[in-house]
Amino acid sequence: MKFGYASDKKVETEFLDEFIQKLADDKFQGTKCRDCSKTYFPPRKACQCLSTNMEWVDLPREATLEGYSFIGEMGMPPEALENRVPYFIAVGKLDGTDVTFTAHMTGVIRPKIGMKLKVVPNQKLDDGERIVYKFVKV
Amino acid sequence: MKVGVVGVGHSKFGKRAEATIRDLSHEAVKPAFEDAGLTPKDVDAIVFSLAGDMFNGQGSPAALVSDYLGTYQAAPIRVESACASGAAALKTAAAFIQSGLHDKVLVVATESMSHVSTSEATELMSRTGDMIWEYSFGISFPAFYAIYASRRMAEGLTRAQLSAIPVKSHEYGALNPNAHLQKTVGLEEAMKSIVIAHPLNLYDCCPISDGSAAAILASEKTTKDLTDTPVWITGIGTSGDTMQIADRPNLTNLSGAQRAAEISYKMAGIGPKDVDFAEVHDCFSIAELMAYEDLGFCPQGEGGKFAEDGQMYIGGTTPVNIDGGLKSKGHPVGATGVSQCYEITRQLRGDIIDKHAIEGAEIGLQHNVGMHGTFVNVLIYKR
């Protein structure tokens, strides 16, 4: 299984495969540095303090919308996403954390900054060949 | 030791299907040498800026261009900071001179982008987003800046305020013979054009252009020997920000630009009120609006009012992008930072005598941003 709506073989690694398996098992996890306690999502193998002493941790699935864009039928998506329009791109912040990340958002027509979102970690695409996480309206 | 700008040159920006990176570079470098009264044999080093390897298959484009310009003996160094590459090249050249390593340095900045389709160009640009975690969701370059705009609109920015910026850019760009889009646009048309990445529409986005700009920098002594109208680089401030837009502490401003401006102002010993005009990185209208605030031309949160009141026109608080900016002049990404230097140098020397002229200008500021605020260079020039 591949990650994302579009991907490039050059960035596929065992670490990404491990993460993909977690998503497929409906686990929503990031990594946390055991040395400085910083938590990352998307996950990282090394912390910005350069420690590799990392562990997988469960993350909350409730989020708040911080910013977004909408790529419509007349919009200009990157070539690799042309067959996916229209779509919302959103930046959300996980409740009770300072973890923010980018993903597609569905189930909304007129989004409002500050609205509540839920994270769906195991969104399978293309008959199960691809997997992504996404935000959906609560 | 001070660093002077002794010569500048600029190609026509636009869709230049007939020109390769060789031709574009030649078009900018020849007038720069003529302007400085120097020949290719006179420069000690070359710093070359080209951001997008993926747009043309040429490996080591710096070598190709350096050979074509007859400057191959001064082995070139290529600098890359995405769309901020041009100013990064100027900074590198200035550092070579200030260290005493070199005396005269040629900066060449070139990009050729329009020979691929718009969707392919959008694809290639979006690959500068994190390939696993942002590119894979189809976040385009306009979408990065649309995320900032969505946040600002939720906080009160209006459509008319944002569209006032491209209206101004096109008004001035129509007067610039080097500009890609030499035409004016009315506010209503700018507000109602097709949506590229909501809430940004066509007039919020710069075009995809080809072009080149060149500058020759020199030591204080050589500058004084070469010219009676020197322009000095008095401040260089650089800062960066996170790779992923989601990791920014806020989505309202570019904190890297705020830090870079603070460093540059401190080095130059001036403040925002001393700036007579600015060249800012308006790849998108929202980017110019954030720049008004990040550079201190108006208070935080008041960029919309600044634009609506026309404070960025000649005669306003701080004239911004009097050459048409990236929006009208065009944005061959690697060339933009040196194109800004070209405009500032000519304004400060009094070379511009038409409706573009900012009379009595003594201090100009350059703000060159890479990606969505990931690299920022702020340079200050004084005549």
What can you see in these coordinates?
Chain A has 138 residues and is mainly beta. Chain A has one domain (2-137). Chain A has one helix spanning 14-24, and strands spanning 2-3, 29-33, 39-40, 54-58, 62-71, 87-94, 100-106, 116-125, 130-137. A five-stranded mixed barrel of chain A has the order 5-6-7-9-8. Chain A has a three-stranded antiparallel β-sheet with strand order 3-2-4, with helices on one face. In chain A, β8 and β9 form a beta hairpin. The two termini of chain A are 28 Å apart. Chain B folds into two domains: 3-115 and 210-231, Thiolase/Chalcone synthase (Peroxisomal Thiolase, Chain A, domain 1, 3-Layer(aba) Sandwich), CATH 3.40.47; 140-201 and 233-382, Thiolase/Chalcone synthase (Peroxisomal Thiolase, Chain A, domain 1), CATH 3.40.47. Chain B is 36% helix and 18% strand. Chain B is built from 13 helices and eleven strands. The longest helix of chain B is centred in the first third of the chain and has 16 residues, at 21-36. The radius of gyration of chain B is 19 Å and the shape is globular. The two termini of chain B are 16 Å apart.
Brief summary of the model shown:
The complex is a heterodimer of chains A (138) and B (383). By secondary structure, chain A is mainly beta.
How is the topology of this model organized?
The complex is a heterodimer of chains A (138) and B (383).
Chain A: E1 2-3, H1 14-24, E2 29-33, E3 39-40, E4 54-58, E5 62-71, E6 87-94, E7 100-106, E8 116-125, E9 130-137
Parallel strand pairs in A: 1-9, 7-9
Antiparallel strand pairs in A: 2-3, 2-4, 5-6, 5-8, 6-7, 8-9
Chain B: E1 3-10, H1 21-36, E2 45-49, H2 61-68, E3 76-79, H3 85-98, E4 104-111, H4 118-126, H5 141-154, H6 159-173, H7 187-192, E5 195-197, E6 200-201, E7 211-219, H8 220-226, E8 231-240, H9 255-268, E9 277-279, H10 285-294, H11 303-308, H12 325-329, H13 336-349, E10 363-370, E11 375-382
Element pattern of chain A in H and E: EHEEEEEEEE
Number of extended strands of chain B: 11
- Overall body shape of chain B: globular
**Discrete helix count of chain B:** 13
Helix fraction of chain B by DSSP (H/I, runs of at least 4): 25-40%
Helix segment tally of chain A? 1
Poorly predicted regions of chain B: none
* Strand arrangement across the biggest beta sheet of chain A: 5-6-7-9-8
> How many structural domains can be distinguished in the coordinates of chain A?
1
* Cα separation of the termini of chain B: 16 Å
Give the percentage of residues in beta strands of chain B: 15-25%
